[in-house]
Amino acid sequence: MQMVQQLPVHLRAEAAECMSFEATSRIRDPIYGCAGIITQLQHQIIQAEREVAKIQAKITFYNAQVHVDPAWLTQSHYAQKQECTLQTSISNPSFGESRGGEFDDGPF
Protein backbone atom coordinates (compact mmCIF):
# COMPACT_ATOMS: atom_id res chain seq x y z
CA MET A 1 0.00 0.00 0.00
CA GLN A 2 2.86 2.32 0.66
CA MET A 3 3.97 2.03 -3.01
CA VAL A 4 0.52 3.02 -4.20
CA GLN A 5 0.50 6.07 -1.94
CA GLN A 6 3.75 7.27 -3.53
CA LEU A 7 2.10 7.46 -6.95
CA PRO A 8 0.21 10.49 -8.24
CA VAL A 9 -3.47 10.34 -7.30
CA HIS A 10 -4.69 9.86 -10.90
CA LEU A 11 -2.59 6.64 -11.27
CA ARG A 12 -3.40 4.99 -7.94
CA ALA A 13 -6.62 3.22 -9.02
CA GLU A 14 -4.95 1.71 -12.08
CA ALA A 15 -1.93 0.61 -10.02
CA ALA A 16 -4.19 -1.06 -7.43
CA GLU A 17 -6.08 -2.83 -10.23
CA CYS A 18 -2.80 -4.08 -11.76
CA MET A 19 -1.59 -5.36 -8.39
CA SER A 20 -4.88 -7.16 -7.84
CA PHE A 21 -4.66 -8.75 -11.30
CA GLU A 22 -1.09 -9.91 -10.63
CA ALA A 23 -2.11 -11.38 -7.25
CA THR A 24 -5.00 -13.28 -8.86
CA SER A 25 -2.69 -14.48 -11.64
CA ARG A 26 -0.12 -15.67 -9.06
CA ILE A 27 -2.79 -17.78 -7.39
CA ARG A 28 -3.60 -19.45 -10.72
CA ASP A 29 0.04 -19.74 -11.83
CA PRO A 30 2.45 -19.36 -8.89
CA ILE A 31 5.56 -19.39 -11.08
CA TYR A 32 4.75 -17.01 -13.92
CA GLY A 33 1.73 -15.05 -12.74
CA CYS A 34 0.54 -12.52 -15.32
CA ALA A 35 3.81 -12.92 -17.27
CA GLY A 36 2.59 -16.38 -18.26
CA ILE A 37 -0.64 -14.88 -19.56
CA ILE A 38 1.29 -12.23 -21.49
CA THR A 39 3.53 -14.89 -23.06
CA GLN A 40 0.51 -16.98 -24.01
CA LEU A 41 -1.15 -13.97 -25.61
CA GLN A 42 2.04 -13.12 -27.52
CA HIS A 43 2.10 -16.66 -28.94
CA GLN A 44 -1.54 -16.32 -29.96
CA ILE A 45 -0.76 -13.02 -31.71
CA ILE A 46 2.14 -14.60 -33.62
CA GLN A 47 -0.06 -17.53 -34.66
CA ALA A 48 -2.82 -15.16 -35.79
CA GLU A 49 -0.32 -13.07 -37.78
CA ARG A 50 0.91 -16.21 -39.55
CA GLU A 51 -2.65 -17.21 -40.33
CA VAL A 52 -3.40 -13.73 -41.70
CA ALA A 53 -0.28 -13.90 -43.90
CA LYS A 54 -1.37 -17.28 -45.30
CA ILE A 55 -4.86 -15.98 -46.02
CA GLN A 56 -3.47 -12.84 -47.66
CA ALA A 57 -1.26 -15.01 -49.88
CA LYS A 58 -4.29 -17.10 -50.87
CA ILE A 59 -6.28 -13.94 -51.63
CA THR A 60 -3.43 -12.57 -53.75
CA PHE A 61 -3.21 -15.85 -55.65
CA TYR A 62 -6.97 -15.95 -56.13
CA ASN A 63 -7.07 -12.34 -57.34
CA ALA A 64 -4.28 -13.07 -59.82
CA GLN A 65 -6.33 -15.98 -61.19
CA VAL A 66 -9.53 -13.94 -61.40
CA HIS A 67 -7.87 -11.04 -63.25
CA VAL A 68 -6.77 -13.35 -66.07
CA ASP A 69 -9.68 -13.32 -68.53
CA PRO A 70 -10.19 -16.90 -69.78
CA ALA A 71 -11.75 -15.59 -73.00
CA TRP A 72 -8.60 -13.58 -73.70
CA LEU A 73 -6.44 -16.65 -73.11
CA THR A 74 -8.58 -18.75 -75.43
CA GLN A 75 -8.61 -16.06 -78.14
CA SER A 76 -4.89 -15.43 -77.77
CA HIS A 77 -4.11 -19.16 -77.92
CA TYR A 78 -6.38 -19.57 -80.98
CA ALA A 79 -4.76 -16.56 -82.71
CA GLN A 80 -1.26 -17.91 -82.05
CA LYS A 81 -2.27 -21.34 -83.36
CA GLN A 82 -3.80 -19.81 -86.49
CA GLU A 83 -0.70 -17.67 -87.06
CA CYS A 84 1.57 -20.71 -86.64
CA THR A 85 -0.56 -22.74 -89.08
CA LEU A 86 -0.58 -19.88 -91.57
CA GLN A 87 3.22 -19.44 -91.39
CA THR A 88 3.76 -23.18 -91.74
CA SER A 89 1.45 -23.44 -94.76
CA ILE A 90 3.17 -20.45 -96.43
CA SER A 91 6.66 -21.86 -95.90
CA ASN A 92 5.56 -25.42 -96.78
CA PRO A 93 2.76 -25.45 -99.38
CA SER A 94 2.16 -29.18 -98.89
CA PHE A 95 1.41 -28.69 -95.15
CA GLY A 96 -1.84 -30.24 -94.15
CA GLU A 97 -1.86 -32.78 -96.96
CA SER A 98 -1.80 -36.41 -95.97
CA ARG A 99 1.77 -37.56 -96.46
CA GLY A 100 1.52 -40.98 -94.87
CA GLY A 101 4.35 -42.40 -92.81
CA GLU A 102 5.26 -41.23 -89.34
CA PHE A 103 3.27 -37.98 -89.50
CA ASP A 104 0.01 -39.59 -90.56
CA ASP A 105 -2.39 -39.36 -87.62
CA GLY A 106 -4.74 -41.92 -89.08
CA PRO A 107 -8.48 -41.74 -88.51
CA PHE A 108 -8.14 -40.05 -85.08
Automatic annotation (TrEMBL):
Residues forming coiled coils: 38-65
InterPro entries the UniProt entry points to: LOB (IPR004883)
Keywords (A to Z) from UniProt: Coiled coil
Domain (LOB): residue spans on this chain: 1-59
Pfam family, one: LOB
Annotated segments matching region Disordered: 89-108
KW RNA-binding (keyword) present: no
Keyword set includes Iron: no
PANTHER family: LOB DOMAIN-CONTAINING PROTEIN 26 (PTHR31301:SF153), LOB DOMAIN-CONTAINING PROTEIN 4-RELATED (PTHR31301)
Protein family membership: Belongs to the LOB domain-containing protein family.
UniProt name for this protein: LOB domain-containing protein
Organism in which the protein naturally occurs: Nepenthes gracilis
Lineage, opening ranks: Eukaryota, Viridiplantae, Streptophyta, Embryophyta, Tracheophyta
